[in-house]
Design a protein that fits this description.
The protein is α/β, with parallel strands linked by helices. It has a single domain, classed as Protein-Tyrosine Phosphatase, Chain A, CATH 3.90.190. The protein is built from 4 helices and 4 strands; from the N terminus they run βαβαβαβα. Strand 2, helix 2 and strand 3 form a beta-alpha-beta unit. Helix 3 packs across helix 4.
Length: 104
């Protein structure tokens, strides 16, 4: 599992080439001026054979539900996950909560 800041569509190729199988977006679409960016990322990810998961976390939210969903994703065999949000902080927090619930 790796986390990072907001990605661009062209970053997905590098993510796929690095061996990741899943991309998790923890950034709500409402934070983007352009609107529903997650749909564009999901489509581009699918074109590269990546599974995409939209688990938005509001900046002041404790990501309990999202971390449980992330734990389920991480529990799947042969899964390598790259999660992102604006800065990476919310994605990291969700991962730390998922780890404490028994995920890898």
């Amino acid at each position: 599992m790796s986390v990072g800041p907001q990605i661009e569509l062209e970053d997905l190729r590098s993510i796929a080439e690095a061996g990741y199988t899943d991309v998790v977006c923890n950034r709500p679409d409402a934070e983007h001026l352009d609107g529903a960016v997650s749909r564009l990322v999901a489509r581009a990810a699918a074109d590269l054979g990546l599974r995409f998961h939209y688990l938005p976390i509001e900046p002041t939210q404790t990501p309990q539900t999202q971390s449980e969903a992330l734990a389920d994703i991480l529990a799947q065999a042969n899964t390598r996950v790259f999660a992102y949000c604006r800065s990476g902080a919310r994605a990291e927090k969700a991962y730390l909560l998922a780890k404490t619930s028994g995920a890898n």
